[in-house]
Amino acid sequence: MKSSRIAILILLFVTTCYAQVKTDYVKLGNEAFDRKSFKMAIDLYSKAIKLNSFNDDAYYFRASAKFNLNDYSGAIRDYSKVIELKPKNFLAYDGRGIAYTKLGKYKEALNDFSKCINLVYDYADGYNNRAFVKAAMKDYKGAIIDYDKAFQIDSTNFNSVYNKGIAKENMGDYKGAIADFNSLIKRFPKNGENYLARGITKSKMKDYKNAINDFSKAIQLNNKLADAFYYRGLANLELKNKSASCKDFHKAMSLGNSKAETLLQKYCR
Question: What's residue 109's pLDDT?
C-alpha cells in the first residue's frame, strides 16, 4: 500500500514537472516574442509543441512569430493546426485570413474572415479585415458595408472611416468619400493624411484649386508626405503652373516617390 502511494506521488510529481516545462517554453517564447526575437520565439514554441503536440497556444503564438518574419505559408500551417485543435478559435481564423491576404489569396482570406465573424459577430477587426479583402477584390459596396459595421461596433476605430472613404472614392462616389474625410478632419484636424485623401478626391472631381489647398495643408502638417507633393504637382500641372509642379515633383522624388521622377523627366527638363 505504501509503495503504491509513493508511486502515485512520483507520477504526480513527474506530471507536474512535465506541465511546468511545457508552460515555461510558451512563457519564454512569449518573452522572446515581446523582445521581437521572433526566431528564438519560434524555437521555444517548437520545444513546447515537441513536448505536447496538442498545445494549441504554442501553435498560435508560433504562427504569429512566423507571420512577423514574413513566413506567411508557415503561419497558415500553424493557424490551421490551431483550428484543427480548437475549431472555435476565432483569432486563428482571423490570423490565417490576414496571412492569406498577404499572399494575395483573397478568396481564402474572405472565407476565414467570414468564419471569424460567424464565431464572434461583434469582432470589429474581423469586419475591417474582410472589408479590406472585399475592396482588394473591387467589391467596394461590400467593403463599405463591413467598414460601417466595424465602426458601429468600435466607434474609436477611425481607420474604418478612412478606408470607407477610400472605397467610396474607388467606386466613384466622390461626394460620399469627401463626407467621410470631412468627418475625420473635424475629429483629427492635425492629421495630414486626411487632407491628402480629401485632396486626391477633389482632384478626381477636377476641383484642382481646392485640391491644392488640401495638399498644402497636408504638407504644412507633415512635410514628409511625399504623396502630398506629388499630387499637388499633378494638380498644378493641370492648372498649367509648370514651375510649381516641377518644384513639387522634385521634392516628392527626394522623399521617395518614384512616380515623380518620370514626370520630372517628361515635363521639367
Answer: 99
Residue 13, class by beta-carbon neighbours within 10 Å (0-12 exposed, 13-18 middle, 19+ buried)? Answer: exposed
Burial 162-189 (b: 16+ CB within 10 A, else e): bbbbbbbbebebbebbbebbeebbeeee
Contact of 151 with 144, CB cutoff 8 Å: no
How many beta carbons lie within 10 A of that of residue 146, not counting itself? Answer: 27
**Any idea which residue has 518644384 for its cell?**
247
Tens digit of each residue's pLDDT (9 = 90 or more) over 188-203: 999 999 999 999 999 9
Q: How many CB atoms lie within 10 A of CB 230?
A: 24
Residue given cell 473635424 in the structure block: 186
| Res 24: pLDDT | 86
Q: What DSSP assignment string belongs to 106-123?
A: HHHHHHHHHHHHHH-TT-
C-alpha to C-alpha distance for 161 and 48, rounded to whole angstroms: 41
Which tens digits make up the pLDDT trace of 43-63? 999 999 999 999 999 999 999
Task: Write down the CATH superfamily of domain 18-92.
Answer: Tetratricopeptide repeat domain (1.25.40.10)
pLDDT for residue 46? 98
Q: How many CB atoms lie within 10 A of CB 265?
A: 10
CA distances from 121 to 76, 113, 197 (A): 23, 11, 30
Query: Are residues 66 and 40 in contact, defined by beta-carbon separation less than 8 angstroms?
Result: no
Residue ranges covered by each domain of the chain: 18-92
Task: Report the residue count for the chain.
Answer: 269
Name the band, by pLDDT with cuts 50, 70 and 90, for residue 23. Answer: low
Write down the pTM of the prediction.
Answer: 0.86
